[in-house]
Amino acid sequence: MLTELLRQLTKDALQKPADLADYLGVTPTLVAQMTEQLVRQGYLAEVTTCHAGCTHCPLQTSCTLERGKPKLWQLTEKGKRALQSRAAPAS
Questions:
Q1: Cα 68 from chain centroid?
Q2: Main-chain phi, psi angles of 23, to 5 degrees
Q3: Which residues are CB-contacts of 42 (< 8 A; sequence separation ≥ 6)?
Q4: ∠16-19-20 over CA atoms, to 5°?
Q5: Are the C-beta atoms of 2 and 38 separated by less than 8 Å?
Q6: Residue 69 — very low, low, confident or very high, per pLDDT cuts 50/70/90?
Q7: What is the largest CA-CA distance in the chain?
Q8: Minimal CA–CA distance to 14: which of 47, 51, 42?
Q9: Which residues have CB under 8 Å from 77's CB, separation 6+?
Q10: What pLDDT, on the 0 to 100 scale, is given for residue 9?
């Protein structure tokens, strides 16, 4: 299920936890726990800064980096390799 969450996160960076939960057939709380596990294992990293600034960013209107909004995640190199090799993260 962790691998499926990684795959889904690569399809669209702006997905609500509730939508991910519906897709996976689990609760939003479990999605949060799974995301935390993927971060601990090094497959995901939280995006905390923007590289280009907001004025030219295509995500400007839906950016999640502001306080009080959901977090934005990106696959790490380890996460990319895992999906390419189909090596599932440990559950």
A1: 17
A2: -60, -40
A3: 76, 78, 79
A4: 90
A5: yes
A6: low
A7: 39
A8: 47
A9: none
A10: 84
Instruction: Report d(CA 86, CA 80) in Å as an integer.
Output: 10
Alpha-carbon span 63 to 18, nearest angstrom: 17
Q: How far is CA 56 from CA 6, 19, 50, 70, in A?
A: 27, 27, 11, 21
Give the three-class secondary structure for 71: coil
| Euclidean distance between CA atoms 19 and 79, whole angstroms | 21
Answer yes or no: are the C-beta atoms of 63 and 57 closer than 8 Å.
Answer: yes
Residues in the chain: 91
Q: Which residues pair with 74 in a beta bridge?
A: 45
Query: What top-level class would CATH report for the domain 2-85?
Result: mainly alpha
Is residue 71 pLDDT above 80, yes or no? no
- pLDDT, tens digit (0-9, with 9 covering 90-100), for 6-58: 888 888 666 778 888 999 999 989 998 999 999 999 999 877 655 555 666 65
- Reading the block at residue 76, the tokens are 């790490």
